Amino acid sequence: QVQLVESGGGLVTAGGSLRLSCAGSGRIFSIKAAGWYRQAPGEQRELVAALDTSGSTNYADSVKGRFTISRDNAQNMVYLQMNSLKPDDTAVYYCNVDAVDKSFYRGNYWGQGTQVTVSS
């Protein structure tokens, strides 16, 4: 089994920063592509940032210039640096990866989510 564990969420005042981490463990061999999603209460889950197999990134318009997605291939880690946070960024943030496990099976996996709360 491949497991993803997010960390780094919390309560921050507007204008502050947080860095979310997503750690791949278990039978994970390598991460091919990754994304961070968020879901606010009563809202649909939305893509915030994506990183494809070539290293190209894509961001939701609402976070461009403020959020940065990155990865550490050696550690099977994915990060989301969030700066200039706004109350509208309050949500549960989820890590999603396309990963290959030690049997070379490629699958899509979700983490359990981490709460980010931005106070005004």
What global shape is seen? elongated
- Judged by helices, strands and strand pairing, the structural class is mainly beta
**Secondary structure: helix percent:** under 10%
**Low-confidence regions:** none
What's this model, at a glance?
The protein has 120 residues and is mainly β. The chain has strands at 2-7, 10-13, 18-26, 28-39, 46-51, 57-59, 67-72, 77-82, 91-101, 106-110, 114-119.
Structural description of this entry:
By secondary structure, the chain is mainly β. The protein has no helices and eleven strands. The protein has strands spanning 2-7, 10-13, 18-26, 28-39, 46-51, 57-59, 67-72, 77-82, 91-101, 106-110, 114-119. The strands form two sheets. Strands 2, 4, 5, 6, 9, 10 and 11 form a seven-stranded mixed sheet that branches. Strands 1-3-8-7 form a four-stranded antiparallel sheet, with no helix packed on it. A hairpin with a 5-residue loop joins strand 5 (46-51) and strand 6. It is elongated. The termini are far apart. The mean pLDDT is 95.
Give structural attributes.
62% strand, elongated, 11 strands, 120 residues, 4-stranded antiparallel sheet, mainly beta
Write the layout of secondary structure elements.
Elements: E1 2-7, E2 10-13, E3 18-26, E4 28-39, E5 46-51, E6 57-59, E7 67-72, E8 77-82, E9 91-101, E10 106-110, E11 114-119
Parallel strand pairs: 2-11
Antiparallel strand pairs: 1-3, 3-8, 4-5, 4-9, 5-6, 7-8, 9-10, 9-11
